[in-house]
Amino acid sequence: MDDYPLLNLFWTMLWFFLWIMWLFLLFRVIMDIFRSHDLSGWGKAGWLILALVLPYVGVLIYVIARGKSMGKRDVQEARERDAAFKAYIRDAAGTEDGSHKGSHVEDLSRLADLKDKGAITEEEYQRAKTKLLV
Q: Which residues contact 22 (CB under 8 A, 6 or more apart)?
């Protein structure tokens, strides 16, 4: 370890991390090329060839030329995922428009109140409860 000074180790690690960051950027650019709907097949092939044949220059040119639309596609995709997640939650919770009207807990509570007040019998309560839970 004496023949490899600490400063050289620092520079080696710096270049290694920069190379890893560039790889992430390269994969991000390639993903963006394929998910872009405004590029034709030939346009996608051209950008891909440029990014793979001249990797550093091709990625830099792509980020300069299409970086803004790349960000817009990221935001749009995030919004679509968020809307899909919220729709899934509403569907799983069994509510409409995110409200809790008509939830089973509230209906069971109302049934219990009616039974406690004597408005319905125990048998009617059990039938209504079974109907709600099924």
A: 56, 59
Q: Give yes or no for a contact between 95 and 101, defined as CB atoms under 8 angstroms apart.
A: yes
- Other Cβ atoms less than 10 A from the Cβ of 23: the count is 11
Q: What are phi and psi of 101, to 5 degrees?
A: -70, 140
Closest by CA to 93, choosing from 103, 80, 83, 82, is 103
Rounded distance, CA 124 to CA 115, Å?
Answer: 9
Confidence category of residue 44, pLDDT binned at 50, 70, 90: very high
The answer to whether the Cα torsion of 96, 102, 105, 106 is positive or negative is positive
Tens digits of residue pLDDT in 16-39: 999 999 999 999 999 999 999 899
